[in-house]
Amino acid sequence: MTNEAIQLGDLLDQFNTSDEVGQNRLVYNQQWLRNQRALILLGQEHDAQATVDDYGNVSLDFPGQEISAPIATGSHMDTVRQGGCYDGLYGVLGGFCAIQKLYQQGHLPKKPVRLISFSEEEGSRFPAAFTGSNYYTGHQQVTPLVDEMGITFDQARRDAVRQLQTIPGVRRQRAPLPASFTELHIEQGPRLAQAHQSLGLVTGIVAQDRYDVTVYGQANHAGTTPMAQRQDAMATASHLMAELYDLANKSSKSLSFTIGEIHVSPNVSNVIAERCTFSIDCREESDERLATFLTAMQVVIQHFENVTVKQTLHVPATPLSQALRKQNAEIATRMNFPFQELFSGAGHDSQIMSTVTPTAMIFVPSEAGISHAPTEYTKMSDLLYGVALLATSLSVQANES
Amino acid sequence: MTNEAIQLGDLLDQFNTSDEVGQNRLVYNQQWLRNQRALILLGQEHDAQATVDDYGNVSLDFPGQEISAPIATGSHMDTVRQGGCYDGLYGVLGGFCAIQKLYQQGHLPKKPVRLISFSEEEGSRFPAAFTGSNYYTGHQQVTPLVDEMGITFDQARRDAVRQLQTIPGVRRQRAPLPASFTELHIEQGPRLAQAHQSLGLVTGIVAQDRYDVTVYGQANHAGTTPMAQRQDAMATASHLMAELYDLANKSSKSLSFTIGEIHVSPNVSNVIAERCTFSIDCREESDERLATFLTAMQVVIQHFENVTVKQTLHVPATPLSQALRKQNAEIATRMNFPFQELFSGAGHDSQIMSTVTPTAMIFVPSEAGISHAPTEYTKMSDLLYGVALLATSLSVQANES
């Protein structure tokens, strides 16, 4: 596997930058544009037909003996702020390497093969995630979005996409849907690394609900307002948060519950808090168990006064293709690659793609479970296990009758 | 009392502005400078000797028959951001009206009388409070302070003070200490208003401790990190805060306990909190009871792991002059003014002045207990009760042998 090692490592070096803290490929910014352009040129060098749609999703179509819907792989080009070198990019460049491996067999596969580099998945620049795969699959888009600098989504999108669509040879259109989609991705959690497994086959993606909970109080002087006469939003919020954590810890083992964001007003040490808003992120492998927890959560919240709850996200659990997972398990077994089946606690483009085409995911380990950080790391040998499994999977799918 | 009503109301109108949200006389800014200048000119019109020290504290000395240390009154000129029309300013302008009333008696008092307008009490521009009265009383100052705009305390101070010290007739020096100090101030709490009392005689100022408590966790992905493997700073912080509130609510009735400020890092809804820092503001009339609570608080905190506590303020309880309070109580009784004795839950220049001279405070009600806000309000009749009691108190003190 030496040749691929050099190629994938070189590509990762070329597409990541080392002149700032972490990777900052926010959708439509300069680094993003540089990479999508480089990917198009790379594909064209290898005889792929490049297509760029109006959201900046790049499709590289490699020919097959037949004219049919392609077998697709890929992931997203964008990162979080100060992100790592692998999240998203590994699925794009690893996908490219897998396709190269397939075409190095010396004959065209029956079906065409496609590499997709989705424009945006992280929601790190504009307050919306999965805009790339949502557009790709024809889902409705919310576009009146503005970034931190006041630039609108549509302005940024048009400026960047124009520069990709005017590259010679690029087809401008929404690519027709593929016959299947397989995404290679880092796990982003610690399970594969802890189990010393190089490969994970993803059974599904968790259900996810997010809420903003706001506790209302009355701002007043911390020294002159008698305790008995206070409406202290922080006093209420701290008890409510503690009870919700207690409830979560008593719930099913597959539940994850996080209060990651708090905003207090006026947030001054000698003023009683007037308002405290905190986020709730809860995820479950099972829609039913998540619903059970949410019902219990509402009961807890109802015991508190002056509290409002606003749902900000609701994503049902997404089972991925059982047929593809079974096929990948058989291939891995045949190749003598140990693997583990697992659920994904993070969202992925695959959950959008799975609404329109059979979809599979292959995970490789994240050292110490770290992702979305400059210290995100996966050993090259693990990265190459993923590429090898994907190459065979694409080959099998593309040569089936 | 009609004449004083017009005069005090006119003065308050003249020294407050109506062209922005609330009063924003941060120390050494334009509004502050305008008012200290206007006060100096007002004093000079009424034959007072104006003195401005190097911190911008203004002293207006009105003559007595004898040459001796003056009987002083006054308060501070600065406000919080978006402050009210009365906090500080009422003690300055009400003090001026009381002195006028005294001199309208037709003969000079035995002792001279002084009005002080302290430069700064609120700590609203630079991260230090009481810089005016601390300088006035010769206490050590911490001056390497910088405001939000990056302007240093010393630069702002020198620019503003130069403009006051160059007003013709102004003496530039630190004024010698007065024989006593009586401060007129709004209560800032609800007790007088709820008791329908127009006057409060302050027995002392609360002891006050502030802390920053930091809970450390480990930032990680909210979806992919198993609950059992998390170090969630918010999970710990919410339980700790709830237990501290429970402890405070079981403690003495004169304790006030407030968590007003929280900072979470990275403060993102789908990332487990790496760090949560919250403030604790606790106040008590009694140093002993405060110490008892703080000991119990440390015991609670020690039950939690990965927590550090940093003390940011320690002010012992300040008893004010019993002799002056007794005298003021006798005067009020003689004038048929009902009053109530009470503790101050807020800090005041009086707690600094009481370290160098016998000090008293006279409170008037704050409607609904609101202060530090544009809606801060005290009825004119209550304001005038305060001025009348202060005028008689100054007269009695200045004419004692």
UniProtKB/TrEMBL annotation, chains A, B:
Q: What class of enzyme is it?
A: hydrolase
Reading the lineage from the top rank, the first entry is Bacteria
Give me the residues that bind allantoate, please: 210, 270, 283
Q: Which GO terms describe its molecular function?
A: hydrolase activity, acting on carbon-nitrogen (but not peptide) bonds, in linear amidines; metal ion binding
Which positions does UniProt annotate for Zn(2+) 1 binding? 76, 87, 185
Record's Gene3D superfamilies? Answer: 3.30.70.360, Zn peptidases (3.40.630.10)
How is the cofactor bound here?
Binds 2 Zn(2+) ions per subunit.
The cofactors named for this UniProt entry are: Zn(2+)
What region holds the Peptidase M20 dimerisation domain?
211-302
Which segment of the chain is annotated as a signal peptide? none
Annotated positions binding Zn(2+) 2: 87, 122, 372
What are the entry keywords? Hydrolase, Metal-binding, Zinc
Q: What is its EC number?
A: 3.5.-.-
Record carries keyword Transport: no
The family note in this entry says: Belongs to the peptidase M20 family.
Classification via NCBIfam families:
hydantase
Protein name, as recorded: Amidase, hydantoinase/carbamoylase family
Q: Which organism is it from?
A: Weissella paramesenteroides ATCC 33313
What gene name is listed for this protein? pucH
